[in-house]
Each structure stands twice: as structure tokens, then as C-alpha cells.
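Hello again, I could really use a second opinion on something today. I've been puzzling over a protein and I'd love to understand its fold better. I'm sending you its amino acid sequence along with the C-alpha cells. It would help a lot if you went through both lines with me. I've dropped the whole record in just underneath, so have a look.
***
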Amino acid sequence: MAKLTSEQLGTEPISKLLVKQAVPASIGILVMSLNILVDSIFVGNWIGSVAIAAINVVLPVSFFIGALGMAIGIGGASVLSRALGANDREKALKTFGNQITLTVLVTVSMVLLGLYYVDALIPAFGGKGAIFDYAKIYYVIVLYGVPFLALSMMGNAVIRAEGKPKFAMVAMIIPSVTNLTLDYVFIEIFGWGMHGAAWASTGAYLFSFGYILYFFLSKHSEIKIDFSHFGLDRGILGEIGSLGFVTLARQAVVSVIYLLLNNILFNLGGEASVTVYAIIGRMLMFALFPVFGITQGFLPIAGYNYGAHNYGRVKESIAIAIKYAALLASLVFAGLFIFPAEIAGLFLGTAEGATAAELAINAYVLEHTPSAMRWVFAATPIIALQLIGAAYFQAIGKAVPALLLTLTRQGFFFIPLVLILPQIFGELGVWISFPISDVLATAVTGYYLRKEVRAHLRE
């Protein structure tokens, strides 16, 4: 197969190009999501359902620190894509060097703070009762590997900005396969329990970083930097920060949502309700992988062509990306609506030596997860417009509208709804907050995207 270079982002037909970009991204996200999904299934079957809830408590903290790398990566990738489109290679190189330096400085500092405040953070994110001990074990070990996760996320965005989606896909597959393999060895064979699950995740981050490092040191990468590029540049940092803040704000809101939901659901139904949300959270990460893949594939195409002033191609990429993503989202919706009970059952094996309390939690989860899952995914067919619309503003370097549109769904709409509706409808209020916020956010994004295209994307 022909090698994809950055120049092809401005010449190949959009449909063909989007498939080339999105399929590897989708496969990478699928494998990564399957890793999270199967990891939870292993933990639920080999350790217990409370362990699934414990991981759900830790994820927002570790993922937020990892998302710092993703934010720096995506923010810098937007700068880098437009620099390549404008044939400014020196700026592209300087951008990448600044991304590396910034990622190391920020994530190591955050990890040190996270370890220092461990006993306060875990209960704050819902790690209470029987969940706390499991969560603390997992949290401390996983945090050691989070800087490598952040560097991998940052590097992956840059690989995709270079027009090398297959390498970005492999970089996502490697840690997933590694994690599942180490899960089996550490938990099932060595019997390390929660320690095994945590070391498997940390080991996976290290393997992922190793592959990313190999890519940039090899002939496959067009970006060859030297020590002069690592020095921080205020102008480039400003661009990376303003655009990366969109991704960081989105992940910060996700972490706040985890904090709210874990605590709200614990108060409504204890460990069992938190476990229901943990399972649904895994499906939110897993089921929408093709839609997220389209979004990831769309970003470098829109950014490159906007930088090259090929506005007709930008408009075409928006239309095709929304069409493809909407079709895939509808298929996801159909599967989740038909098979929610079967999906919930995958997570709840009979762990050896399960207590009566553990079995009671399993019964509650099996009864309540199907209806909750249908509510949470009820508006899935329309979310493509919201995701692609927000991604467009990020791709072209318009940080403020990108930030506001990114925050509409989870920040401006979902958080107020989830604080109000459970007081009226109980646990049902949590679940119906998801589709209501999806509908409202999609309407707002559609309005502003249409306005932007009409005003600024003229040949």
C-alpha cells in the first residue's frame, strides 16, 4: 500500500483520505477500548465487582494526568499540521520539541501532587466503603506509569499530524495487547489480585512509550529534532496551550463528572450503583470507537487544508465526516439497545470466594444496568454533529469556540442536569441526564458550525 505523507492530506480525494486516516484511528481506539473493556471483565471475574468500581474511581485521576499529554499533543498537532500545510518545517520541529518538554514538566509535577494527596483524592472521587482499599492499591501503582502514558498520547497525536495513521494505530494496539497479556499473567497465574491489575496497566504504558520513541528515532518520521528545539518558545507555548486547553478542559470536565456521579450514585445505591456506572462508563469508551476514529481522522485533514487555504476541501471533509460518523453512531445505538443485558452479564462472573455482599451487588447490577444503558445511549445517533463540529474549530486553531462547544455537552448541560434531576427522579435522573444533554449540545453545535462555514469557508 502506498505510503501516506503529509502532502497527500491536501491532494487525495476526501472520502479516500478520511478512510485512510479514520480506519487506523478507529482500529487503534477499538483495541484500546477493548483493552479497557476486557480489563474490566477480567477484574470483575477474577477479583470481584467492587474492584471494577475501584478502577472507575481511579480512572479520572490517572486519565486526567495522561490527558495533559493528549492536550499538549492535540494542541501542538494543530499547530504542526498547519505549519506543514504552510511548508514551515522549522516551526513544526520547534513545536514538537516544545511538546516533549512541556509534557515531561507538567505530568511529573502532577504525579507528585497526586501521590502526596492520595488519601484525600480517592474518597473525593467516590472511593468509599469497600471500594477504598482496592482503589488505593490500583491508584498508587498506576500513577508511576502515567508520565509515560502522557508522552505516548502526545506522540500519537503528532504521528497522526504527520499523516502516518497506521503507526498511530500500532502505538495504541501495543499497550492494549500488553495490558491484557500482563493481566492474565499477574492476576490469574501469579495471583497478585489488584496489584497485578495495576502493574499490568503500568507495564502497558511503558511498552507504548517504547514504540513511540522508536518511531520518532527511525526513518519513518519526517520530524527530526535536535536539542535546540527543546527550549520553550513563548509563542508556540501560547498556541499549544490555547488549543490544547480544549482537550484538557474536556478531560477535566470528565473527571468532575466521574467525581459527581460516583458520589451521587454511592449515596443513592452504594457500591452497586457505582458498579452500574462503571460498566456503562466502559461502554461509553468502547462502543463509540468508530465515531471517535472518524473525529481523529478528520482533524489532520481539516487542519492541513485550512492551513493551505483549500477551503473547499475543508467543507467537503466536514460533510463527509459527519455523514460517516452519523451512520456508525446509529449502528452502535442499535446494538446497545438490543443487547444491554448480555453486555452487563459479561462483567459479572462468579469470582472464587465471593461474599454474600458481592453476590448481592452482582444481582443488583444485572437488574439495573440494561435500562440505565438504554437511557445513556438514547441520543447516540445524533452526536456525530456535535463531535465533528467541535473538532473542526480545534483543527483550524480557533480555541475559544472549540472550547465552548466541547464543554456544552458535558459541562454546560450535563453537570447542571445531573445535580438537579436525581433529586426529583432518583437514580433514573442520573441516566436521563445523558440524552438530554446530548440533544441540547448537538443543537448548539449545529447552529455555530453552520454559521462558521457560511461566513469563513469561501474559496
